């Protein structure tokens, strides 16, 4: 199952315009307590895959099931625009407050 990109995110001016900037954004999130370094690095790697898809205008071809809540912030622009169509992400609504 692929998750479509949020095409509205292209219409919003964002402070992230390339992969190095996206890498800095994703790296700015602190590892949650109880998360192993390996699990957190994997989470950040998946977030960067979403950003790569965003930059090349391609759907994300993996599933995202029940990720840590901060992951969903990583795949939003700093301005708050989601990169993916959020209703297509299984478990997202159950992680939001």
Describe the 3D structure:
The protein has 97 residues and is mainly alpha-helical. The chain has 4 helices and no strands. Helix 1 (19-27) runs antiparallel to helix 2 (37-56).
Name some characteristics of this structure.
4 helices; mainly alpha; 40% helix; 97 residues; single chain
Number of domains: 1
Give the helix tally.
4
Mean pLDDT: 81
How far is the N terminus from the C terminus? 26 Å
* Proportion of beta-strand residues: under 5%
Low-confidence stretches: none
Give the overall shape, derived from the CA principal axes: globular
Number of DSSP E strands: 0
Multimer state: single chain
Helix-strand pattern = HHHH
What helical percentage do the residues reach? 40-55%
Query: Which structural class matches the secondary elements?
Result: mainly alpha
Q: Major sheet: size, sense and barrel closure?
A: none
Instruction: Please give the radius of gyration in angstroms.
Output: 13 Å
Task: Give a quick precis of the structure.
The chain is an all-alpha fold and 97 residues long. The chain has one domain (7-95).
Fold topology:
Blueprint: H1 19-27, H2 37-56, H3 69-74, H4 92-95
